[in-house]
Amino acid sequence: DAGVTQSPTHLIKTRGQQVTLRCSPKSGHDTVSWYQQALGQGPQFIFQYYEEEERQRGNFPDRFSGHQFPNYSSELNVNALLLGDSALYLCASSLVDREGTQYFGPGTRLLVL
Amino acid sequence: DQQVKQNSPSLSVQEGRISILNCDYTNSMFDYFLWYKKYPAEGPTFLISISSIKDKNEDGRFTVFLNKSAKHLSLHIVPSQPGDSAVYFCAGSSRPDGLTFGKGTHLIIQP
């Protein structure tokens, strides 16, 4: 039973560029949430997708957008990258209405230079 | 405005003794509380959760206690083992919002 997978594992970009991160949820899960974890901080909620729609959004600017596909996998897109976007980006999957228990992937570490 | 606070950045405990990790929250809308464990270069791993209508949940060596009146929860690990050394995150859940995490406590188990 495959857990949550994310790609790529590491990424280096320069300011102003755009990036796309990918996530495949745990088998049987239909809800995907994205988090940003800066150094020394806990993960911060970006948004959640269910049935290919953004269901809820945290306090992140519109530069952060996402998508969910019919197979429940998801992408996180960040436009006009800033130095402050450097962080570990975590994807978590769950079953709808049981979001309390979310299972996390290993994350994608993004460095913006 | 931190809704979930873990005031101890680190905690050192001897192997075999009890580890107690603390967490305070301000959001009364949380309906579940969760503890996650994180090793370097890995995503957080779910450990144990507790519903806001309960005051205790136990799973093996891990027990979580919730004091709603004090808006405080704690994770007890008994006995502590070397493999327990990791960063522990407390999180609150209020559907349909995502999880709100604390900053974490680095637990170090000493032999």
Précis, in short:
The complex is a heterodimer of chains A (113) and B (111). Chain A has strands at residues 5-7, 10-13, 19-24, 31-37, 44-50, 53-57, 64-68, 74-78, 87-94, 103-104, 108-112.
How would you portray this structure in words?
The complex is a heterodimer of chains A (113) and B (111). Chain A has 113 residues and is mainly beta. Chain B is mostly beta strands. In chain B, strand 4 and strand 5 form a beta hairpin. The model of chain B has no long low-confidence stretch (mean pLDDT 94). Chains A and B meet through strand 5 and strand 10 of A and strand 4, strand 5, strand 9 and strand 10 of B.
Uncertain parts of chain B? none
**What integer value in Å does the Rg of chain A equal?**
13 Å
Helix content of chain B: under 10%
- Compressed to H and E, one letter per element, the order of chain A equals EEEEEEEEEEE
> Which percent range fits the helix content of chain A?
under 10%
Q: Using DSSP, what is the number of strands of chain B?
A: 11
Number of helices of chain B: 0
Largest sheet of chain B, if any? 6 strands, mixed
Distance between the termini of chain A: 37 Å
Query: In what range is the share of β-strand residues of chain A?
Result: over 45%
Topology, please?
The complex is a heterodimer of chains A (113) and B (111).
Chain A: E1 5-7, E2 10-13, E3 19-24, E4 31-37, E5 44-50, E6 53-57, E7 64-68, E8 74-78, E9 87-94, E10 103-104, E11 108-112
Parallel strand pairs in A: 2-11
Antiparallel strand pairs in A: 1-3, 3-8, 4-5, 4-9, 5-6, 7-8, 9-10, 9-11
Chain B: E1 4-5, E2 10-14, E3 19-25, E4 32-38, E5 45-51, E6 56-59, E7 62-67, E8 72-77, E9 86-93, E10 100-101, E11 105-110
Parallel strand pairs in B: 2-11
Antiparallel strand pairs in B: 1-3, 3-8, 4-5, 4-9, 6-7, 7-8, 9-10, 9-11
